[in-house]
Specification:
Length: 388
């Protein structure tokens, strides 16, 4: 990947304080006290590796997390604009609008690059010069919240919460982002050879959008605890999924529900993972979504110890992964609500019973990340991004 491209991933002024705007500061504070042990790059970033097999820490995938927290608004914007300049011209939406900024974490998974960005309201433009200097990648991007409105390659596009877009980096772009939280996976065009990408639109039909949103969310959720040796297989799985989803001659097994990824259990897992926040996530609900009988569902989950045993395990795994995520700022109380535990006390007990440590201790451990040998400067980070 070209040096200039990497600057796109290194974003890093700040915006929300614990997820909300702090108008008196306007900078992003991602639990700054929790990150004091993370190694710093010379330009204020933090980088390292995260990984775990359940609760056993191992060598995780390379990642970088950078912020300009502590800078004045003018300084934060100037740094943001400088860092994005090779990929985008960034500006306020109107002359009187607040200066833009944001925050970003980026992971290397095999030959793909996954990133999550929190962006303030701003305008982004990619002109011909930037197109010609840019990488030959496609970005498959899920909008978790916020909105994008603009044009890409001369085509109008609007994306809001839950929307997945497919945009080539060699396309002109002009659009407005409104307080967006986005997760994207950059895939080299060579990995998508043979797919009719130029003929298709920038958005997906409802069925494909649903499957991609679930897959992207699942990949991002797993990244803080995945081991480095598992990353290439995860990248290969995602690319193979894209081929099956976008190749009309092969998509039937993906779109036909029961054949999703080759089996009924995979469909069940997707439905459970997409609905962990529902208090009524029950065998009846899951069977209804799968269009199978409860008897069939019970037989399917016998090896897992039962349907609700599996659901509880997935909820605890989701909490574990959230607590390991450097971008995650929600409290244990809030996570207990999000993942449908009756209280934070119940969550703490269940987490300790499952993993052997309290959730607060797990979060604290994951925040203390050792510096990775040979990755102590932006140049080292750029190296693995270029190779991705």
């Amino acid at each position: 990947m070209h040096d200039s491209v990497v600057r796109f991933f290194v974003v890093f002024a700040a915006y929300f304080r614990n997820g909300d705007c702090d108008p008196s500061i306007g900078l992003f504070r991602l639990g700054q006290h929790a990150y004091r042990h993370l190694p710093h790059t010379p330009d204020g970033g933090r980088l390292g590796r995260l990984g775990a097999d359940d609760m056993t820490a191992g060598e995780g995938v390379p990642y970088s997390y950078l912020t300009t927290s502590g800078l004045s608004l003018d300084e934060a914007f100037e740094r943001w604009r400088t860092l994005l300049a090779p990929m985008y011209a960034v500006s306020p939406t109107t002359p009187s609008a607040p200066l833009p900024f944001g925050a970003n974490i980026t992971y290397q998974i095999g030959d793909l690059v996954t990133q999550r960005s929190l962006l303030s309201t701003q305008r982004l433009q990619r002109d011909r010069k930037r197109v010609e200097a840019g990488p030959d990648h496609y970005m498959v991007q899920l909008y978790r919240s916020g909105r994008f409105q603009g044009t890409v390659a001369g085509k109008g596009v609007s994306a809001s919460a839950g929307t997945v877009t497919l945009i080539g980096r060699r396309n002109l772009l002009d659009g407005m982002l409104d307080r967006a939280d986005v997760v994207g996976i950059a895939v080299p065009c060579a990995r998508l050879h043979g797919l009719p990408l130029k003929e298709r639109g920038l958005l997906f039909d409802a069925a494909r959008n649903r499957l991609l949103a679930a897959r992207i969310s699942d990949i991002y959720r797993r990244l803080p605890t995945i081991r480095a040796d598992e990353a290439p297989a995860l990248a290969d799985e995602f690319v193979a999924f894209l081929h099956r989803l976008l190749d009309g001659s092969r998509a039937i097994d993906v779109l036909d529900g029961r054949e999703l990824d080759g089996g009924l259990m995979a469909l069940a897992r997707m439905i459970v993972q997409a609905n962990l926040s529902r208090p009524d996530l029950s065998p009846e609900f899951i069977a209804g979504q799968m269009q199978v009988s409860r008897a069939t569902l019970y037989r399917l989950f016998e090896p897992e110890g039962g349907v609700m045993h599996f659901v509880r395990g997935e909820r605890l795994r989701a909490v574990r992964d959230a607590l390991a995520d450097p971008m995650e700022t929600r409290t244990l109380n809030r996570l207990s609500e999000v993942f449908a535990f009756s209280s934070s006390s119940q969550l703490s007990r269940s987490f300790r019973d499952r993993y052997g440590v309290p959730p607060q201790a797990w979060r604290a451990e994951r925040r203390v990340v050792q510096r990775v040998s040979g990755q102590g400067s932006p140049q080292n980070v750029w190296k693995w991004l270029r190779e991705a």
